[in-house]
Q: What sequence folds into this?
């Protein structure tokens, strides 16, 4: 009997217990085969989600090398939960099966809560923090799960840093600590700070309405009701710039703010301005147009003169992908835009994303430059301290976003701030801890693996902050 037929026979068992289903789920995942995952899930009690869960399971295998069962957790609200540990990296998950609102069994995989994880992972101290961060990311790199660069700093002192993987697989070029990586949505911080500088200069208010700056904007509701604050906090009702026209068109068509605006400016709003929250790339493109109108400069020129050059961020900018730029990483992916999982070697994302970054993201930077950006924020060199406090305070009714910054609650109280970015072949995050002086940045050119590093570092830094 083949392995796949054995899996099929197991999955065909009539009404196995949730604990048994989880064991069979792990067996199919650990086989390292998408087909093995499909065989199990198509015969499990969730046929409507079978292929979706199978692809998610296989993607987990590719990232972790599979899992070993650590222990069963107490049943919670009718859910059977099992704590598992990844084979190739120091990471944990909870595999669970419970009933949904319709009473049908449904599988899920989640990260364990911090309190549970602390039982498996020793608490970090100020002395052990650098080595713990270094060891974790080195483990990711050894497992082929991190291709990029990172740094942990305290004030101006870099405590740990490194670079792993290849910037270009075809030519065998290695990533360096100062390699330029695509930032994806991390670039929204630059747009937000540009608005903040114009607010400090008295040229704008956060509650300025779009029509005051762009009286000819085609959408009357946006002109009359949407404010800069709404755009910055994703509460304007605007949608995305990645419309069918973008997906189907040549990516070198969208190199200026004015070229991107037609992708969404005539689209209906998702909700009444200020009455909801929905992540909006289009909103940040519109902010870029506001910056151009008020400053009288092209968006990237304004950033160069007002943000990058004053901080010495010489390796940051909208480097165009149809031009050769030294020391720039290409992105590689096994997870294309349609959410599927591809087999074999990753392929580059050159024809998937915009050829030149926009105010919504897609520019390039380096780990050293982003440390300079963090220092500029802390020091008040970019915007006034009061302006930064406004921008890094939770927007009313929103759980994790201020004005252009994602916010992370700290165990000791208060918020860390920064921004992440993700796209097929692009992953990164900057996170700034205002009270302790810690800053962490990770940039990667392979799918979303930098997020894994950031999640663990957040926990480790949280240990240290809580201990003081």
A:
């Amino acid at each position: 009997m083949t392995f796949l037929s054995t899996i099929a026979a197991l999955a065909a068992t009539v009404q196995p217990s949730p604990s048994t289903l989880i064991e069979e789920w792990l067996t199919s995942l650990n086989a390292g085969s998408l087909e093995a995952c499909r065989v199990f899930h198509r015969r499990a009690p969730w046929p409507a989600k079978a292929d979706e869960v199978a692809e998610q399971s296989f993607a987990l295998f590719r990232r972790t090398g599979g899992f070993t069962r650590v222990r069963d957790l107490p049943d919670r609200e009718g859910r059977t939960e099992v704590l598992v540990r990844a084979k190739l990296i120091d990471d944990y998950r909870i595999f669970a099966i419970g009933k949904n609102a319709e009473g049908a069994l449904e599988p899920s995989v989640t990260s364990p809560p911090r309190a549970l994880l602390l039982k498996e992972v020793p608490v970090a101290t100020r002395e052990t923090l650098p080595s713990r961060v270094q060891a974790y990311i080195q483990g990711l790199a050894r497992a082929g799960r991190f291709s990029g660069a990172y740094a942990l700093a305290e004030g101006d002192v870099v405590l740990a840093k490194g670079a792993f993987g290849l910037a270009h697989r075809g030519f065998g070029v290695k990533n360096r600590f100062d390699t330029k990586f695509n930032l994806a949505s991390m670039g929204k911080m630059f747009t937000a700070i540009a608005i903040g500088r114009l607010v400090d200069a008295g040229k704008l208010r956060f509650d300025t309405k779009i029509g005051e700056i762009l009286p000819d904007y085609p959408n009357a509701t946006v002109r009359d009701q949407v404010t800069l604050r709404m755009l910055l906090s994703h509460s304007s009702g605007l949608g995305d710039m990645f419309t069918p026209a973008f997906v189907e068109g040549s990516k070198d068509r969208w190199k200026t703010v004015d070229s991107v605006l037609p992708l969404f400016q005539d689209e209906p709003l998702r909700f009444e301005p200020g009455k909801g929250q929905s992540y909006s790339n289009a909103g940040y493109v519109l902010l870029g147009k506001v910056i151009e109108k008020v400053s009288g400069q092209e968006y990237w020129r304004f950033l160069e003169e007002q943000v990058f050059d004053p901080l010495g961020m010489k390796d940051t900018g909208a480097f165009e992908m149809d031009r050769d730029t030294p020391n720039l990483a290409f992105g590689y992916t096994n997870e294309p835009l349609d959410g599927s999982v591809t087999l074999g070697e990753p392929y580059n994302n050159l024809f998937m994303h915009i050829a030149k970054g926009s105010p919504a993201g897609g520019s390039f930077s380096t780990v050293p430059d982003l440390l300079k950006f963090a220092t500029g924020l802390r020091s008040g060199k970019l915007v006034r301290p009061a302006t930064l406090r406004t921008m890094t305070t939770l927007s009313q009714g929103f759980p994790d976003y201020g004005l252009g910054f994602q916010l992370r609650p700290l165990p000791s109280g208060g918020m860390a701030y920064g921004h992440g970015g993700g796209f097929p072949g692009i992953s990164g995050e900057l996170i700034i801890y205002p009270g302790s002086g810690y800053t962490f940045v990770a940039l990667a050119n392979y799918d979303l693996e930098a997020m894994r590093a950031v999640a663990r570092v957040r926990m480790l830094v949280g240990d240290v902050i809580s201990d003081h």
About this structure: The chain has 17 helices and 16 strands. Residues 238 and 268 are 8 Å apart (CA to CA).
